[in-house]
Every structure is written in structure tokens, then in C-alpha cells.
Amino acid sequence: MNDIDQGTVLDREPATLLGDELPLTITVEEASALLGISLRSTYRAVNAGHIPSTRIGRRFHVLIPRLREQLGLTEPELVHALTCVRENAAT
Questions:
Q1: What is the pLDDT, as a whole number, of residue 60?
Q2: Which pLDDT value is given to residue 91?
Q3: Which is nearest to 30 in space by CA: 14, 48, 17, 12?
Q4: Whole-model pTM?
Q5: Which residue, 38, 52, 78, 80, is most buried by CB atoms nearer than 10 A?
Q6: CB atoms < 10 A from the CB of 54, how many?
Q7: The CATH number of 19-90 is which of 1.25.10, 1.10.10, 3.30.1490, 3.40.1130?
Q8: Who's near 18: CB < 8 A, 6+ residues apart?
Q9: d(CA 75, CA 79)
Q10: Residue 59 phi/psi, 5° resolution?
């Protein structure tokens, strides 16, 4: 085994590209809530290539940098919107 403690790696927050608060990807469920469309419609848009995504294993992940560009949002606007989505999901 390597020198990295696997528990530490798994407990980390997602890596960020656009700042300290914005992850590189979000789940399709989060994208659905963020865009205000149904989960089914979100999956259809992902499969059609209308929502920028990548497939990792069996799951799709929506690419935040490309989604932000596509929507024409600033980074602070997207951080705020995503924070609201995650707060609502936690309640």
C-alpha cells in the first residue's frame, strides 16, 4: 500500500478549480435543483449533451466550469446558488 492514509483521502472535501467554495463537478440531482427542472428532464438533457457532464463509473457528474460558462453566471453567483441548493437539500 502507498503512504496515503485512505481514510484521510475519502474524508476530504471535493477538489476545487474555480475558488475555495466551488467544486469541479456536482451531481445530476444538484444540477436539477440548481436549474429548477425535474430530475428526469435533467437526465435527458445530460444524455442529449445539453448539460455539460462527464461519466465517472456509472454516474454522471455535471461540469461546473462549463455549466457556469453556459449559463453566463459569475463565480459568486454560482457559489451562492449552489450553497442555497445544498442548504435546502440538508433540511
A1: 96
A2: 80
A3: 14
A4: 0.75
A5: 78
A6: 13
A7: 1.10.10
A8: 64, 65, 68, 75
A9: 6
A10: -110, 145
